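Regression test case RT-17, inverse folding.

Input:
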């Protein structure tokens, strides 16, 4: 059997088939069959793919959710996506970052979007001093 090189394009969808007509074994009584490879997507720890869009969650401390933050996400191709907010972030809020999803198959200069869901880590306990500060803050509201 000859060596075969398969090029997997960026953005190729899950279950996409790459066909090599006549690439299979030949038999004396029939022509060579096609050789078909199917691309199976492996689950990623940070990103979930839906079409050309990517979904991820980002954990925030209570301080970051209330006062703002700047965080970096390492993308699939190792470039860094910086997310900055200077306002209150609600738990479960979703931010859409245009053009940071997967490249479109057969159009690699066009990208889907990245949807980031914010998860706010609320402390289980506050010290007495922290409670007093919160009470002072809310007293004026």
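Golden output:
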């Amino acid at each position: 059997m000859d060596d075969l090189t398969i090029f997997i394009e960026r953005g190729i969808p899950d279950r996409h088939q790459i066909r090599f007509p006549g690439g299979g074994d030949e038999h004396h009584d029939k022509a060579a069959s096609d050789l078909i490879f199917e691309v199976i997507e492996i689950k990623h720890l940070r990103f979930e793919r839906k079409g050309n869009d990517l979904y991820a969650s980002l954990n925030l401390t209570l301080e970051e959710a209330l006062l703002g933050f700047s965080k970096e996400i390492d993308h699939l191709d190792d470039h860094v996506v910086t997310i900055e907010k200077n306002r209150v972030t609600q738990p479960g809020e979703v931010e859409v970052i245009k053009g940071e999803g997967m490249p479109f198959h057969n159009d690699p200069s066009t990208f889907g979007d990245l949807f980031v869901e914010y998860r706010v880590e609320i402390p289980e306990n506050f010290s007495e001093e922290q409670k007093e500060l919160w009470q002072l803050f809310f007293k004026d509201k």
